[in-house]
Structure formats: C-alpha cells, structure tokens
C-alpha cells in the first residue's frame, strides 16, 4: 500500500513538471526574458555589460530551450503515466490512487508555479483547491462505502 502511495505522489509531481514544461515551451517570451536576465546578471558580475551582446545571444537561444522543454513535456507525461499505472496496480483502490495523484499534482503545480514563474496564489485559489480535494476525498469515501454495501449484500 505504501508503494502505491509513493507511485501516486510521483505521478502527480511528474504531471506538474509536464504542465510547467508545456508553459515554458509554448509561453511566448518567458524563456527569452529569463535568458536576458541571466546574461545581464552574468555581465554585471564580470563587468562586461554589452546590450548588443545580450540581445544577440538571447534572440536565438530561447528556441532550442523551447524545443528541450517540448521534449520534456512528452517524457514527463510518459513517466507520469508509468507511475500512475504502477500506483493503480499497488493501491487498494483506483480511487485512492487517483485522489493521491490529483492532490500531489495540485500541490506540485502550486510549488513549481511559485518557484519557476513567480506566481502567487490568492486565498481564493487555495479555497478552490481545498474544495476540489474535499470533493475527491468524498468521492473516494463513497466508493469505499459502496464496496462495503456490496459485500454485505453478498453475505
């Protein structure tokens, strides 16, 4: 049962990595702005600031980075589905694996959004996530209750 939990947590985390990679890959100018910031910081430390060099380097380097992020989307999704399938196999119920994966995905997405994109989540966002998770847990509880009723009917 513990291995199913770990697989479900990992599946949720890799799902969050896949969605963050998709945002980096398809997002307009985020990688270019990140490159500009990195080059400016590096130039300031080396005392070799050159605006022409900054724009020349970052005009093309974001394209291969976007392609790498696109490949990361597909590889992260493949790993996520592998872990989710293992979580389903090792968990006592599919609802438990689904709830755990979903919760892990929500929390990992919030963490990655804050770390990578500097997003901050308002109280309303956390209330919405909490209600969604509560609904998933109620769904999980009702599926277990339904199994118990079916077992009692068979007796």
Automatic annotation (TrEMBL):
It comes from the Eukaryota. The chain crosses the membrane at residues 63-85, 123-144. InterPro entries: EmrE-like, TMEM42. Residues 1-19 form the signal peptide. The keyword Cell wall biogenesis/degradation does not apply. Keywords: Membrane, Signal, Transmembrane, Transmembrane helix. The keyword Membrane applies. SUPFAM superfamilies: Multidrug resistance efflux transporter EmrE. This is Transmembrane protein 42. It comes from Silurus meridionalis. The lineage of its organism: Eukaryota, Metazoa, Chordata, Craniata, Vertebrata.
């Amino acid at each position: 049962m513990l291995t199913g939990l770990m697989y479900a947590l990992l599946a949720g985390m890799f799902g969050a990595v896949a969605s963050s990679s998709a945002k980096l890959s398809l997002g307009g100018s985020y990688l270019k702005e990140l490159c500009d910031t990195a080059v400016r910081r590096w130039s300031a430390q080396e005392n070799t600031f050159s605006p022409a060099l900054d724009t020349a380097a970052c005009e093309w380097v974001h394209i291969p980075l976007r392609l790498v992020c696109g490949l990361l989307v597909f590889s992260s999704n493949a790993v996520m589905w592998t872990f989710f399938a293992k979580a389903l196999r090792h968990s006592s119920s599919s609802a438990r694996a689904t709830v755990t994966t979903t919760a892990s995905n929500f929390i990992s997405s919030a963490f990655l959004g804050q770390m990578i994109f500097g997003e901050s989540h308002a109280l309303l966002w956390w209330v919405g996530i909490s209600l969604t998770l509560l609904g998933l847990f109620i769904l999980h509880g009702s599926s277990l209750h339904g199994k118990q009723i079916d077992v009692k009917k068979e007796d």
